[in-house]
Amino acid sequence: MDVLSEGEVLATFDKLVSEGSIIYQPYETISEDCEGYPLEFRICPSLAKKPHTVGTKLDSSFDKSQKWGPGSDMFCTDERLKVAKLNNSHDLALNLFCVDRPQFVVLTLDSYRRQHEPLDLDDFKAALEMVTSLSDMYLIFNCSEEAGCSRVHKHMQGLRGPPTAFEAFVGGDRERSAIPFQYFVHHFAQGFGKAEAKELLGVYEDLLRQTRGVLGKTVTDVCPHNVILWRDWIIVVPRRRAAVGSASANAAGMLGSIWVPDRSGVDEWLRLGGRSILKELGVPALENGNAR
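Now predict its structure.
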């Protein structure tokens, strides 16, 4: 993929926002410390129009938008959303509902691929193209509805880094002990720029095998999990559910960046307790230390 000009991308993004083809507004940020685990709540009024669960219909203002392929449940409101092709297997596009300026989505060109499927070699080839071509973007994948996805067309997302709680995952024992749920992590010493997609796939498949063990899933079961790629690290988080009441999180949320449409969403998290919610969404951390 050709290296993109951030200025050109932002100019297109701002133009599409002004025309209503991208839903984005400035957001308010509230930070909380959950016994050493940092949470950043983003209050994004624009998310009120976003479908939050699989099967939810899009806002009626998008009724005439074309789908992103015959098997897709995602919408392309404007051809200018499409930024590039990745690996000849994925579209890199500007996201329709954004919490970052800009925010990307990486969709399979095969619009019948589904979000409950694990990542494969083509996914990792596309992911590496994105994270090595775009500055300071991290990649997330929400595998299945229980892991926080709201659309079933297989896709990943690109967000501005760093993930809020990332340092806890790569720090010492004290930092890692603050993480309330189990996870698996691997560092690529050669860096993403020199790593091959097949290497990432091999590591991911091993972490996914461990994730299945934690969740009691077989290789034929859907295995809910989140994936995060950032600064030469891969993190995999086993998931048990998407939400506790109205408090929900995707991959970014499990790493501390929680998106809500209004203040009531923050209040619900604080009422139930951030650590308690994260333990229910994931798998509670082991007493003798997190899975590694």
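The chain is about 25% helix and 25% strand.
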